[in-house]
Design brief:
The structure is a homodimer of 147-residue chains. Chain A is mainly alpha-helical. Chain A has a domain of 86 residues: Winged helix-like DNA-binding domain superfamily/Winged helix DNA-binding domain (Arc Repressor Mutant, subunit A, Orthogonal Bundle), CATH 1.10.10. Helices cover 68% and strands 8% of the residues of chain A. The first copy, chain A, has a three-stranded antiparallel beta sheet. In chain A, strand 2 and strand 3 form a beta hairpin. In chain A, helix 2 packs across helix 6 and helix 4 crosses helix 5. Chains A and B meet through helix 1, helix 2, helix 6 and helix 7 of A and helix 1, helix 2, helix 6 and helix 7 of B. The structure holds a DNA duplex (30 and 30 nucleotides).
DNA sequence: GACATTAGTTGGTACTACGAACCATCGTCA
DNA sequence: TGACGATGGTTCGTAGTACCAACTAATGTC
């Protein structure tokens, strides 16, 4: 497949990651539009699928200033997708939890993203997908973002 | 290395791509902040390194509504980083070109991004980097975003 | 109990993104 | 060659997003 070999020759490691990242971001934007939320809102909701999370932890995970997160949570709370829940042990703190509607939307959009990415990779051999996943996992582990 | 094997087992293909994409976006945000521009502005400037580009083509490349691109170009033009150049053959159209300062900033930030991504991959064997690049190139080729 | 630190919010500001509507210009067709 | 549809880009209105400084309430430490 000369076109892929030629493309590989022209595309460095860094450029490959950047272009892949943009492609994923565009796909993310498409999915969020389909679900009538913004990409940032969708990312927040997906982050909460595993259970309620505190604001400090969320701002760390999303790489946002706390004040930006306050606004983002305000907007999805206003839509009834999340609720602020008092922390039992620390009256300063609150946990952000998905409502039923928020959980439904989060799971659906998460599945939609996953489905489209799997479709994107449809023609790739399984061995290539596993290889890509394995190398990325190692990258993320080294960077310290895998928990 | 059991931690990587365990991580790989838990991380599907789609999740790997999403997390990688977020990591790259965060790195992108860090670099743009260092250069005192926004991520969107940096992406635009980097897109112009190869030479002037028309608004229609830019909005396609950046996945933006034309009106959003007008605003983005306004803001970087106001900073003296780009200039709108009349199209010689079509008086409706203009090309967006980097100024000297814009070119300097674009090249520097592009090199900074590349450097940090290469550093990120510092511990990965060359074979893994080439493998990752090759699989991504094939993905992008299939998706039709490689030209 | 005083004080430093933390969790989160408020206010101000600029940037970003979309969609409708618009204007100037170009391309096509009769 | 003139009418009209299409195109390139802008304006306007609106909502969302992001950062930073300053703030309040609460917790942790000494």
């Amino acid at each position: 497949m000369t076109t892929t070999i030629e493309a590989t020759a022209e595309l460095g490691f860094a450029a490959a990651l950047v272009r892949m990242s943009h492609l994923v971001q565009h796909l993310f934007a498409d999915v969020s539009r389909d679900h009538d939320i913004t990409p940032q809102q969708m990312q927040l909701l997906c982050m909460l699928i595993g259970g309620p999370v505190g604001m400090t932890e969320l701002s760390r995970l999303l790489h946002l200033e706390k004040s930006s997160l306050t606004g983002l949570v305000d907007r999805v709370e206003r839509r009834g997708l999340v609720a602020r829940v008092r922390d039992a042990r620390d009256r300063r703190a609150c946990q952000i939890a998905l409502t039923d509607e928020g959980a439904r939307l989060a799971v659906e959009s998460h599945q939609d993203v996953t489905g489209r990415l799997d479709t994107l990779a449809g023609e790739l051999p399984d061995a290539d997908q596993e290889r890509l996943t394995s190398v990325i996992a190692r990258l993320l582990a080294q960077h310290g973002t895998l928990t």
